[in-house]
Amino acid sequence: MSSNEVNEEVNFTSNLPPDKVKRVVEALRDVYDPEIPINVYDLGLIYDIRLEDKKLKVKMTLTAVGCPLSQDLGYRVGEALQAALPEASDIDIDVVFDPPWTPLRMTNLGREMFKAIYGYDIVEQWQAQQAQAQETQTGLAIATP
Questions:
Q1: How far apart are CA 52 and CA 57, in angstroms?
Q2: Staple 110 to which of 16, 21, 99, 106, CB 3.0 to 4.6 Å?
Q3: Model confidence pLDDT, tens digit, residues 42-82
C-alpha cells in the first residue's frame, strides 16, 4: 500500500453509522501522537466512540502510561471530533490503560509509516520480544524446583 492510498480498516468499536465513522477516521488522521509522528487513528489509540443523546463518548489510550502530553492529546482528539461531528453537543474523552496499547492495534498503514520512519516493523519486533519473554518464563518455570 502506498502512502497515498486510504486504509479502510476501522480499529475501534462504535455505534456510529458508516458515513460518520469515515468522517471520524479522517479527522483522527489529522491528530498526531506527540512522541511518535503517526496519527492517533493509525497508531490504534482509539478504542471506542459512541454518540448517545448528542454526547460523544470516546475511550482512548496512549502508547505509554505517564505521557506528559496526554491532556493535550485528548484535547486535540476532542477538537477534531467536534469538527467532524458538529451534532455532538458534548465530548467526553476517557483515557484508559486497560487493555494496554500494543503495536498489534496499529493499522497496516500505521505499521508502514512506522517502518518508513524508524527502519523496522514494530509489530514483528514486539512479537519477537513477547516470544522471547514467554520462553524465558517457561525456562524459569522448568528450572525452578
A1: 8
A2: 106
A3: 999 999 999 999 999 999 999 988 877 778 999 999 999 99
Architecture of the 13-119 domain: 2-Layer Sandwich (3.30)
**Positions of E strands within the chain:** 13-14, 46-52, 55-60, 90-95
In which order are the strands placed within the sheet that holds 13-14? 13-14, 46-52, 55-60, 90-95
* Grid cell for residue 42: 493509525
Neighbours of 57 (CB within 10 A): 16
Pairing of the two strands 46-52 and 13-14: parallel
User: Three-state secondary structure along 90-121?
Assistant: EEEEEECCCCCCCHHHCCHHHHHHHHHHHCCC
What is the tens place of the pLDDT at every residue in 16-26? 999 999 999 99
Q: How far apart are CA 138 and CA 141, in angstroms?
A: 5
